[in-house]
Amino acid sequence: MEFSISAIYEGNPKLTLALVWHLILRYSHLHEGDMMGVSAEVHCKNWCGKNTDGYVGLENIEKDFLGTWVTGLVLPAIINRSNPELIDYRDLYYNKSPEERFEISFDVS
Questions:
Q1: Three-state DSSP class for 25?
Q2: Rounded mean pLDDT of 54-70?
Q3: Tens digit of pLDDT for each residue in 2-38?
């Protein structure tokens, strides 16, 4: 599956959840029992909330999941949490547009 910046920026829910699922599989160590009784959508939202906790601009990610993704801040926060040397989150937050945030994040990941 190919993830396009425009599809995520426009709030395509299926592609956004697919991207998150891909990130979870790549950066998380899921155990067989981790998803018992929880839908993939709920797991994706919970995982994103956990991995962006404390980042400016992402306080409402679990309540406004797609709206938060459209800001272009979720992916850089996840990348920054995993490896702070790859992305300067504060610079992206204060100095870049949502489109620029997506481009930088996709280039780095």
A1: helix
A2: 88
A3: 556 676 667 777 777 677 767 666 655 555 455 556 6
Enter the DSSP assignment of 52: S
Q: Tokens at residue 89, please?
A: 């989150």
At a CB cut-off of 8 Å and minimum separation 6, what does 96 contact?
72, 104
**pTM value?**
0.70
Q: How far is Cα 14 from Cα 18, in angstroms, rounded to an integer?
A: 6
Residue (of 59, 79, 60) closest to 19 by Cα position: 79
**Helix, strand, coil proportions of the chain in percent (round to 5)?**
65, 0, 35
Buried b (16+ CB within 10 A) or exposed e, 14-52: ebbbbbbbebbeeeeeeeeeeeeeeeeeebbbebbbebb
For tokens 């992402």, name the residue: 58
